[in-house]
Amino acid sequence: MHPTSIEKTPSFSDLSLDEQLLSAVKKMGFEQPTPVQLKAIPLALEHKDLLVSAETGSGKTAAFLLPTLQKLLVSASRKSGTRALVLTPTRELAQQIFKHCQQLTEFTDLQTGLITGGDDFRLQQNMLRRNTEIVIATPGRVLELMEQEIPDFSNLDVLILDEADRMLDMGFSEDVLNIASHCNAQRQTLLFSATLTHFGVIKMADKVLKEHDIVALNTLHDGHRNIEQQFVLADDNDHKLKLLTWLLKNETYDKALVFANSRIQATQLQGPLRGQKLRVGVLHGEMDQKERNRMMTLFREGEIKIMVATDLAARGLDIKGINLVINFDVPRNGINYIHRIGRTGRVDELGLTIALVKHTEWNLMSGIERFLKQKFKHRTIKELEGKYKGPKKQKTSGKATGGKLKTEPKKEAAEKVKIRDRDKKNIGKRRVPSVKPVIETNQS
Ligand code: AMP
User: Fold this and answer.
1) Has residue 411 been placed in a domain?
2) I want to staple 422 with a disulfide (CB 3.0 to 4.6 A). Which of 71, 171, 244, 409 is the partner?
3) 297-310 burial: b if 16+ Cβ within 10 Å, else e
4) How far is the CA of 91 from the centre of ligand 1 (A)?
5) CA of 201: how far to CAs of 52, 148, 169, 172, in Å?
6) CA angle 228-229-232, nearest 5°?
7) Based on the domain organization, do 160 and 236 belong to the same domain?
């Protein structure tokens, strides 16, 4: 790729989704599809069965919900039973998916229901009788309801098995297969798993999927092992400017890239930094190509060591020797963050990325940490310590830990021991998988 060329940024509107869904995606703040969404949505929209490897944090929930909702929106409702069923291993996950689905269906008439153990059986019965289109469930309670012949999956359009590897590890294999055997044989099935190198997953795929495609993605964090990620707390933008200047003067780097969220902010940083005798360039979307090329050449050739840029301007920037990325503004979402830090630590180079975080940006940063399943290192700069020390007390709530409750591992372990025996009878029944690998992408 030519270093100055700008890649076309894929957007949700390229994915042939209904306006109602695009509005919801927009409202949720998703600016562009994640890699798994980009790969899986078009294939799922072609009504293909899919086996997808993607972790929590990759955007997999929307990757299976969006094409499913699209399918439900375009085919007229028959008002006869459930039309999409999502099976997921734990109650917490089911609740998260339920919430996600409610947000995505906000501008539609589609109804979503939740079926998990521990909740009111009768309410769930009633919900199923009302022909709720989308049901998010854990396998155990669905089976209990099936014993009472309540759910009707004979008209199911889409069956989704989320975190299939975990469902297998928790001993739900037989339950899942049992439920699948009661679903409409003509349905589409989407099987999501963190890993494909799990024999049980391949075996399950062999049983529940028809001829299918595979979408394999490396986990997001695997790609960023060579980048150290830090954050520094700041009181306000003036404080940030002091921190930025200090970092640019004291860090060791060949080239540094500073990100701002707006063209105005990027332009405003230039003057004060130059005032500190730092050679700085600016790159933003509204510059003409000639000026842009000139800036890039100066940066590439090391005439200027520091470039202040906006997200759009930095896409496709492939310049050697950028080993420091400073987020003057915390990016608006995880994807932008990945693109920004992707400018450093390329191939075998080591990189350092530092986010300057003021109190209004704390939640944004926590969201990005959750998205990446990573914790950034808190760094303080003694000479410039400010008043803001982060939120008073960081509760280990479901939200702050990426949706997992603190007690979950314990509970899960117990559950695992209790039900592991159920799957023992399957050991040794190895079958040659008839899967057809068509798509494999590596996250760079
Ligand atoms: P998931 O892997 O589905 O658990 O998603 C992890 C987090 O990423 C959730 O908080 C989602 O709301 C968020 N997310 C999903 N897709 C996108 C996207 N395209 N852009 C930004 N955030 C997203």
Assistant:
1) no
2) 171
3) eebbeeebbbbbbb
4) 19
5) 11, 29, 10, 12
6) 130
7) no
pLDDT tens per residue, the chain (444 residues)? 444 445 567 899 999 999 999 999 999 999 899 989 999 999 999 999 998 888 767 889 999 999 999 999 998 665 678 999 999 998 888 998 999 999 999 999 999 999 998 888 888 988 888 889 999 999 999 999 998 888 889 999 999 999 998 898 888 999 999 999 999 999 999 999 876 655 567 678 878 988 777 776 644 444 444 678 899 999 999 999 999 999 999 999 999 999 999 999 999 999 999 999 999 999 988 888 888 889 989 999 999 999 999 987 766 566 778 889 999 999 987 767 866 776 665 544 668 999 999 999 999 999 888 766 678 999 999 999 999 999 986 544 433 323 222 333 334 344 343 434 444 443 333 333 333 333 333 232
- Does residue 326 sit in the same domain as residue 185? no
What total of structural domains would you count in the chain?
Answer: 2
Ligand 1 centroid from CA 239, angstroms = 31
Ligand 1 atom 11, closest CA: 59
The gap from C-alpha 156 to its chain's centroid, in whole angstroms, comes to 27
AA letter at 144: E
Which numbered atom of ligand 1 lies nearest the CA of 367? 10
> How many angstroms does the Cα of residue 1 sit away from the middle of ligand 1?
29
Q: Which domain holds residue 71?
A: 13-216
Expressed in angstroms and rounded, the spacing between residue 23 Cα and the centre of ligand 1 is: 16
Which of 25, 28, 162 to probe ligand 1 with, by most ligand atoms within 8 A of CB?
A: 28
Examine the fold and report which residue of 155, 188, 216 is the final residue of a domain before the chain moves on. 216
- Sheet containing 134-137: give its strands across: 112-115, 134-137, 84-87, 158-161, 188-193, 49-53, 212-217, 439-441
210 and 274 within one domain:
no
